[in-house]
Write a structure and sequence with these properties.
mainly beta, globular
Length: 93
């Protein structure tokens, strides 16, 4: 299953990837939608082997899990073999 992340909720300062607390998404298969917490999305991608992305068509960018040594895992987009900031460009909810 793949979901397209459409919005993020950021709590705290600075507004960075580690402070995103939840995600709104749309399911590719059935056009269903939902909201998931950061831990739930990390589990979806990392454990359940689900896929998430931002954008569409040629602007589609995969989302991956970053696992820093001294902090909780979080999501970030990964394009052209580099971590990128596409999630921070999404609308807030």
């Amino acid at each position: 299953m793949a979901v397209r992340i459409t919005h993020v909720r950021v709590e705290g300062f600075p507004e960075d990837h580690q402070h995103i607390t939840s995600y709104k998404w749309v399911n590719d298969a059935d056009n269903g939608s939902g909201t998931s917490t950061k831990p739930a999305m990390v589990e979806f991608i990392d454990v359940k082997k689900g896929r998430a992305y931002v954008g569409s068509g040629s602007s589609r960018v995969e989302v991956g899990v970053v696992r820093p040594q001294s902090a909780a895992p979080y999501l970030r987009t990964y394009a052209d073999q580099q971590w990128t900031n596409n999630l921070l460009s999404l609308p807030r909810f």
